[in-house]
Amino acid sequence: MRRILLLLPTTSYRNAAFLAAGKALDVEIVTCADYCHRLAPSWGLPATLSLPFDRPEVAIKTLLRIFAGADGFARRKLDAVLAVDDAGLELAALLNQHLALPGNQPAAVRRLRDKLAFRELLQTHRFNCPTFVHLPDGENIRPPTLSFPLVVKPRRLSASRGVIRADNDEEFMHAIQRAREIQRRADRDAVDFGLVVEAFIPGREYALEGLLIQGGLRVLALFDKPDPLDGPFFEETLYLTPSRLSPALQQTIAAEVERACRVADITSGPVHAEMRVNQLGVWLLEIAARSIGGQCSDVLKHTLGMSLEELIMRHALGLPLPNFRIEAEPVGASGVMMMPIAKRGIFRGARNVGAALNISGISAIQVTAQINQLLVPLPEGASYLGFIFAHAATTDAVEAALRSAHQALVFDIDTALPVLESLLINDCSDQENGK
């Protein structure tokens, strides 16, 4: 039986999907999580497999000691290491490197996770790239090389968290203060990293889901994002496929993503790319060496004939991949709505789910917010109320179904009670590093 190590962030929507994929492929799954090693025993979890994903050099020492052991757990070798989400990407790359398994180089993965390094890469290799600067911690003056509108970004956060548009000096000062606080709460290296400030890129936004095989890009889907994402925050809602862009423009997007992966030295595994398109061409916003986030991967089952997680696991293990051609064999259109959190408060429940499910084209509604959970909208928030899925004959029909279903749903959010958030985010992740 093949054996695979999964790095599972405790906050990921996708852990269950990857575990199910392993079961479908009849492979042995070894799991490792980023929960607190001090609290793990009281939760009934093994502290030996709770590691700080954001300290990969520390975490790998622990894992290599485990795999060098003589017990039953470590006796058989691993066939693959997979990170479910951004947090574990660098650790997975280091493990693959140490264990001589196929995968991307740690430096390449690190480069893509850092928004500043990615902008520098695009600029060096003459991609369309907005004017940008690095704003170190403590600097508050707008660089003279930049004019409004501007976008302020934490360097390593995902899902538009902390990304804020500013149209004047007052908004700029507020944006950098807010983005720094968000980054400080989410990233223990916030002081060292600083922020990225760049010119706002007009245009419509799209996303590409792909799989790199020996450096070649296999496009799994190109998604339209029909809602304008012009700020001040950039919360994604609708993903629709197939795209309504012309075939020529879709090919251009794929070529730009493949070229960026090549110059970044990313050669293997899933990639998720975000871009804007305007009259000047394609502008890459970011590329991640992982698959689409949330539960959005479910939208691809109609096309792939299996879950995206199973496809990724097959590739990692060297198993046969499906021989499909998306553009030649359309199977209708699919889409997902990531239901946004409109206001801060305590979630009390959702109503009219049955009525929304009865709308033509709606295939599933998953309310992932938990009763009595604190809901926090962007730019501070990092989650959704849930997901609505649709499948229909055309992309237009899918979009209409998703909008109708969302309009039918009613969410009860209690805003009357005072709520507190902990400012202590790294108390449990300082093992073995002297901090």
For the termini, the CA-CA separation is 40 Å
Shape: globular
The level-1 CATH class of the domain at 332-435: Alpha Beta
Structural class: alpha+beta
Question: How would you describe this protein?
Answer:
By secondary structure, the chain is of the alpha+beta class. Among the domains are: 3-104, Rossmann fold (3-Layer(aba) Sandwich), CATH 3.40.50.20; 131-199, ATP-grasp fold, A domain (Dna Ligase, domain 1), CATH 3.30.1490; 332-435, ATP-grasp fold, B domain (D-amino Acid Aminotransferase, Chain A, domain 1). The protein is 29% helix and 25% strand. α2 packs across α4 (89-98) and α4 (89-98) runs antiparallel to α5 (106-113). The radius of gyration is 22 Å and the shape is globular. Residues 421-435 have low confidence and may be disordered.
Would you summarize the structure shown here?
The protein has 13 helices and 18 strands. It has 435 residues and is of the alpha+beta class. It is globular.
Q: Could you outline the blueprint of secondary structure elements for this entry?
A:
Elements: E1 3-8, H1 15-24, E2 28-33, H2 56-67, H3 72-75, E3 80-83, H4 89-98, H5 106-113, H6 115-124, E4 132-135, E5 150-154, E6 164-166, H7 169-186, H8 190-193, E7 195-199, E8 204-213, E9 216-225, E10 238-241, H9 247-264, E11 269-278, E12 281-288, H10 301-304, H11 308-317, E13 333-339, E14 345-351, H12 353-357, E15 362-367, E16 374-375, E17 386-392, H13 395-408, E18 410-414
Helix pairs in contact: 2-4, 4-5
